[in-house]
Structure formats: C-alpha cells, structure tokens
Amino acid sequence: MPSRPFYYRVTDGLRITVRPVYLPERSNPLKQQYVFAYFVRIENLAGATAQLRSRRWRIHDSIGEETVVEGEGVVGEQPVLGHGQVHEYQSFCVLKSDSGYMEGEYIFVREDGSTFEAAIPRFLLEARESAEPLP
Fold it and tell me: Is residue 106 a contact partner of residue 55, using CB atoms and an 8 Å limit?
C-alpha cells in the first residue's frame, strides 16, 4: 500500500508538517472540481511561546491559476504554542485541474510582541486514486 507524502519545514523553532490527500468522492472532474484535504501539524521546538495570528496561502494549479488566501488564525483558532506543544488541524481546497501545489506562511507573535513568519512548505496536490483510508 503506498504511503501518502508529507512535507515539513522548520522556521524559528516551529516545525510545520503537511500531508495532502486527494478526495475523489468529493471531486467532479467533469466540472473541473478536484478536492484535496490537507492535514497540518504545527510543533513548537523552541523555548519561546508563540501565538499563530494569521495565515497566507498561495494555491497554484496546473492550468496556471494562482489564488492567494489570507486571514486570521487557522480554522477559527489562534493557538498559543509553548515549548513542546502541538496544534493540528485539517482543511481543504478545490482546484480546477488535477494537479497543483500550495505553500505559504503563518504569522506568529512572541510573548515580547515581536512577529515572525513560519514557512509552510510547498506541497504537491495530485489527483490520484488511493485505496488507503484517510488518517
């Protein structure tokens, strides 16, 4: 059974891990609707506490369209992560083609009020059928 790829990047002590999956049962290729879920894990490996305030996603598809999505927090939350703490969530996106990629940044604020961007690694979105169940 093939395993799904995962992607990660560490920025300023925060490790962002993403695992995408194609959802054929939610997709409609005849209407150019390819639905992908992605599972995100944010781990604070540093000593300093930080709060996720906002996000910026760049979504690209293979027909050349690019969409930028910005907003506060993630799925309605602005988690505070101390050393060793983890926040996980899942979301989805819809592409007009069967492949593309996403990437972006989370904007965090430290306890001293300084802000920094944690890179969300570029991850591939590919519409492939899989017998493997969702995590």
Answer: yes
Distance CA 51, CA 48 (A): 10
Record the tokens describing residue 20, joined without a space. Answer: 């995408």
Domains in the chain: ranges and CATH: 7-126 (2.60.40.1470)
pLDDT at 131: 42
Query: Are the beta carbons of 55 and 78 closer than 8 angstroms?
Result: no
Closest Cα to residue 14, out of 105, 113, 100, 123? 105
Q: Which two tokens stand for residue 91?
A: 């979301």
8-state DSSP, 4: P
Q: What is the pLDDT of residues 73-112, one digit of tens each?
A: 999 999 999 999 999 999 999 999 999 999 999 999 999 9
- Contact between 38 and 7 (Cβ < 8 Å): no
- The rounded radius of gyration (Å) of the Cα atoms in the chain is 16
